[in-house]
Automatic annotation (TrEMBL):
<dbReference type="GO" id="GO:0003700">
    <property type="term" value="F:DNA-binding transcription factor activity"/>
</dbReference>
<feature type="domain" description="HTH cro/C1-type">
    <location>
        <begin position="12"/>
        <end position="66"/>
    </location>
</feature>
<dbReference type="InterPro" id="IPR050807">
    <property type="entry name" value="TransReg_Diox_bact_type"/>
</dbReference>
<protein>
    <submittedName>
        <fullName>Helix-turn-helix protein</fullName>
    </submittedName>
</protein>
<keyword id="KW-0238">DNA-binding</keyword>
<keyword id="KW-0805">Transcription regulation</keyword>
<comment type="similarity">
    <text>Belongs to the short-chain fatty acyl-CoA assimilation regulator (ScfR) family.</text>
</comment>
<dbReference type="GO" id="GO:0005829">
    <property type="term" value="C:cytosol"/>
</dbReference>
<dbReference type="Pfam" id="PF06114">
    <property type="entry name" value="Peptidase_M78"/>
</dbReference>
<dbReference type="Pfam" id="PF01381">
    <property type="entry name" value="HTH_3"/>
</dbReference>
<keyword id="KW-0804">Transcription</keyword>
<dbReference type="InterPro" id="IPR010982">
    <property type="entry name" value="Lambda_DNA-bd_dom_sf"/>
</dbReference>
<dbReference type="InterPro" id="IPR018653">
    <property type="entry name" value="ScfR_C"/>
</dbReference>
<dbReference type="InterPro" id="IPR001387">
    <property type="entry name" value="Cro/C1-type_HTH"/>
</dbReference>
<dbReference type="InterPro" id="IPR026281">
    <property type="entry name" value="HTH_RamB"/>
</dbReference>
<dbReference type="GO" id="GO:0003677">
    <property type="term" value="F:DNA binding"/>
</dbReference>
<dbReference type="InterPro" id="IPR010359">
    <property type="entry name" value="IrrE_HExxH"/>
</dbReference>
């Protein structure tokens, strides 16, 4: 397979602006001519190896910033939006989408936002009878989706919050002592912690200064909820400053995001970046070993692994997803080129859906997407008991994975034939934008392809994809 050329004009301009350099000065420091730099910034030429080395040596820059990961995400999101039937006759070629993502990322995001607003409007109109007479029946972006996209485009890594959490956990003598530090932090602010037989995981009485934690929940959950409360009472200024930077469109989105940032702080304090990254590399990303060492759940460990994107100290770029039994994605993030459907369910050929069939066991899968990229995917069910007889059990499945080129760093890749092309199962994003012509699990035709229907023949599908 030919090496893909790196076009990163928008990122080069962003780096130059951040360094407050003119094109002339920037070109001189990179050792290239002014016209050559201009061509690279306008994506008329790929970024050369000389420039990549100069960025690292001259500015100490983490050259992975030039990665096309964000562009790939934008292209994937635009393709999914353009797969909408309203664009059926106006699908731009893939080259145009890549050019837009590279040269005009702000425009690409604006288009995605516009299409998202259209879909939400369409869904509201479809259930107009429920909205009639309601004062809040106004057209606006979904706060939940807005927050999810915020974390998505931050690579699920919030630098200031992560560093603050790492400084907080540095007070602990070992990984298991963070509970003591959290108790001390709350006590210093006059907050008493009580284990109480309640259904809620956490309930804070601000007036009485008492934090009630459910005695029914696991020790890992109790510590996590305690750290979340620490974030809310001790890191409020930091969280608010981060929210100001995000510029959410509604108070609902801002409130949801604040809880998200507090959750992020809790996870980062429970599994501090430097220590956790070193431990993950040492045990080759064994989730069970990491869970035992840091007193975290399997899901918390998997989620944390997907956030290890600190500039200059990046871990393996993982994707992480959680689905419910209906196949609905409830959590998603990808630091890889693999993207998830923004609307609807994920590809049914993905092993995350089979995890419900084998509770308590890890499933391994070698998978290949239509673009030819190969991945190793790890899936497992995660059940959350209700805590009492008759209480509903919440059942989910999680998947964690990365490109197969990182297989040597994963204990789960041991004894898998990663060099055998036939070992890889074909998966996609969702049926309506999947390019595969032959798929026995296809639910709907791909919108970018023409169909041939022959009444005298019936194969796996009632049509042929051209």
């Amino acid at each position: 397979m030919a090496t893909q050329k790196l076009y990163a004009g928008a990122k080069l301009r962003e780096i130059r602006t951040r360094l407050t350099l003119t094109q002339k000065d920037f070109a001189a420091k990179l050792g290239v001519s002014l016209p050559y730099l201009n061509q690279m910034e306008n994506n008329n030429r790929p970024v050369s190896t000389t420039v990549v080395l100069a960025l690292a040596q001259e500015f100490g820059l983490d050259v992975t910033e030039l990665s096309t990961g964000d562009s790939e995400r934008l292209v994937s999101d635009m393709r999914e939006a353009l797969a909408d039937p309203i664009f059926a006759d106006t699908m731009p070629p893939l080259a145009d989408l890549r050019l837009t993502a590279s040269n005009a990322p702000a425009l690409a995001r604006a288009f995605i936002e516009l299409h998202k607003s259209y879909r939400q409007t369409h869904e509201r109109l479809a259930s107009l009878d429920e909205a009639l007479g309601r004062e809040d029946a106004r057209i606006q972006a979904s706060p939940w989706e807005e927050v999810r996209d915020f974390f998505h485009y931050c690579d699920n890594y919030i630098d200031a919050v992560d560093h603050a959490a790492e400084r907080f956990s540095a007070q602990a003598n070992d990984a298991g002592d963070v509970r003591t530090v959290a108790l001390g932090s709350l006590s210093a602010r006059g907050i008493q912690v009580k284990l109480t037989d309640i259904e809620a995981l956490r309930s804070f009485d601000a007036k009485a200064r008492v934090l009630h934690l459910s005695s029914r929940s696991s020790p890992q959950t109790q510590v996590f909820q305690m750290l979340l409360q620490v974030a809310l009472v001790s890191q409020d200024k930091l969280l608010e400053a981060t929210l100001d930077f995000a510029r959410f469109h509604s108070e609902e989105a801002r409130s949801i995001a604040k809880i998200g940032l507090a959750n992020y702080f809790a996870g980062a304090a429970l599994m501090p970046y430097g220590t956790f990254l070193a431990a993950a590399r040492d045990c080759r990303h064994d989730l069970e070993l990491l869970s035992a060492r840091f007193g975290a759940s399997i899901e918390q460990v998997a989620h944390r692994l997907s956030t290890m994107q600190r500039p200059g100290a990046k871990g393996i770029p993982f994707f992480f997803v959680r689905v419910d039994q209906a196949g609905t994605i409830t959590k998603r993030h990808s630091a890889t080129r693999l993207q998830f459907a923004r609307f609807g369910g994920a590809c049914p050929l993905w092993n995350v859906h089979r995890a419900f069939e084998t509770p308590g066991h890890f499933l391994r899968q070698l998978a290949e997407t239509p673009d030819g990229v190969r991945y190793i995917s790890l899936a497992r069910d995660v059940s959350k008991p209700g805590g009492s007889f008759g209480a509903p059990v919440r059942r989910y499945a999680i998947a964690l994975g990365c490109e197969v080129r990182h297989a040597d760093a994963l204990v789960y890749a041991d004894n898998m034939d990663v060099t055998n092309a036939s070992a890889y199962e074909p998966i996609g994003i969702s049926c309506r934008i999947c390019e595969r012509q032959q798929c026995h699990q296809r639910s709907v035709p791909p919108l970018e392809r023409r169909l041939t229907i022959n009444a005298n023949e019936r194969g796996t599908l009632p049509y042929e994809v051209n």
